[in-house]
Design goal:
- With 390 residues, the protein is mainly alpha-helical.
- The protein folds into two domains: 10-175, no CATH class; 205-340, Orthogonal Bundle (Hypothetical protein af1432).
- The chain is 64% helix and 0% strand.
- It has helices at 10-39, 46-69, 74-94, 105-113, 119-135, 143-204, 209-222, 232-244, 262-269, 274-279, 286-294, 315-330, 341-350, 358-368.
- It is elongated.
- This is HD-GYP domain-containing protein.
- InterPro entries: HD/PDEase_dom (IPR003607), HD_GYP_dom (IPR037522).
- Keywords: Membrane, Transmembrane, Transmembrane helix.
Length: 390
């Protein structure tokens, strides 16, 4: 078996803490029993003290094995819950103190499980704990036992209510905390990128108005894909990140009108990686980073950096690629003149099915609504974007 590595997963630490806490409590109980017996304060049977020592040894063994070999993750939580249930069952059956209420520990177990904020874990192993507890009640047909049983069942109901309330509360708190952290990360990322905009403007001799133009056009095209849910902040960040990515290009690239060398072309391609370089550890930005990384892929597989083909290219990346091409052609640069909107429109439409997906080009045509004498007959109309083309 391979020992696991810590990866910051809080559920793994929580599971370890469960076994550590049980081991510590049993060890303290064994030590105090031995100490009080030695001092003559409480004359506990030696078999009970020996039994507690065995329980402590078993619990520490389970703790060490769990800490070393149970890998953190969703599936491992069920393994941890199973081991915890077996360990508690062992204590209750062995029961060195012969304590009659020892089975009530199964009423506390589901409450602890609620801290993992995993519904399946709570329902499965919480139900198992309550089932074990109910089976130990040993109901008899007399009034006093029935009243005691009702009291015990009431405790089980209270425990279940507390466990569910704990689950809902922790889920809400964690959800709010996660949203606040994501919002903070977004604000920090946007602030960081905005600080680079003036540098890119001077470096590239271009206007930052392109950021707003790109974001607005991407939103228009996305309206043609109602099933593609993209947040406004993702579009804004993508437009800003795309503009800032030019900071990686050498200064002379923006002034020279000569053909790029192979080495210079490789440097130009590096701007696709700036998103992953800056935000590789931010899962919330994954779609933005992926769109920037893949926006130079081509529908026929001739693009870069991964030579993706067809539907392998994310929709947002395809849209960004078309918008980038359109704005690049219609925006004047120091080294070339801009083409007309109609000419850029015709050029992009001519690449449908080769460089760009036909349905994305059709969405672009609907979004820009440029009146052009050129008819793009090979770009089909469709009624439902969610259905594949026939």
């Amino acid at each position: 078996m391979k020992s696991r590595k810590r990866n910051g997963n809080h559920t793994g630490y929580l599971a370890d803490s469960m076994f550590y806490g049980i081991s510590l409590l049993v060890s303290v109980d064994a030590f105090l029993s031995l100490l009080l017996h030695t001092l003559g304060v409480v004359l506990s049977p030696w078999m009970a003290i020996f039994g507690l020592a065995i329980c402590a040894a078993v619990s520490w063994t389970v703790y060490v094995l769990h800490k070393l070999y149970v890998m953190p993750g969703t599936n491992s939580l069920h393994i941890s819950a199973f081991l915890g249930t077996c360990l508690l069952l062992f204590f209750c059956l062995y029961n060195p103190h012969q304590f009659t209420g020892v089975w009530m520990i199964f009423l506390l177990f589901p409450i602890f499980l609620s801290f993992f904020h995993d519904r399946a874990l709570l329902l499965i192993w919480g139900s198992a704990a309550y089932l074990i507890y109910v089976l130990t009640l040993g109901l008899e047909q007399n009034m006093s036992v029935t009243i005691d049983a009702l009291f015990d069942l009431s405790l089980a109901g209270i425990s279940a209510a507390c466990a569910w309330i704990g689950y809902v509360t922790i889920k809400k708190v964690l959800g709010d905390s996660r949203k606040a952290a994501e919002e903070h990360n977004r604000e920090y990322a946007m602030t960081l990128l905005n600080t680079l905009v003036p540098i890119v403007e001077r470096k590239t001799q271009s206007s930052s108005k392109e950021i707003e133009q790109m974001g607005r056009l991407i939103k228009r095209i996305l309206r043609e894909f109602p099933l593609e849910k993209v947040n406004d902040w993702e579009i804004n960040m993508l437009s800003l990140l795309h503009y800032v990515s030019r900071i990686k290009w050498p200064d002379y690239v923006f002034e020279s009108d000569e053909r790029l060398t192979t080495y210079e072309y490789q440097i130009i391609q590096e701007h696709c990686h700036i998103g992953s370089e800056m935000f590789h550890d931010k899962p919330a930005f994954a779609r933005v980073v992926k769109a920037l990384y893949s926006h130079h892929e081509r529908y026929d597989g001739s693009g870069y950096p991964q030579q993706l083909k067809g539907e392998e290219i994310p929709l947002l990346a395809q849209i960004l690629g078309i918008v980038e091409c359109f704005l690049a052609m219609t925006t004047p640069r120091a080294y070339r003149e801009a083409v007309t909107l109609a000419e850029a429109y015709e050029e992009i439409c001519s690449m449908a099915g080769n460089a760009y997906d036909e349905k994305v080009v059709q969405a672009f045509a609907s979004a820009v609504q440029i009146h052009s004498p050129t008819k793009v007959s090979h770009v089909p109309r469709w009624l439902d974007h969610s259905q594949p083309r026939g």
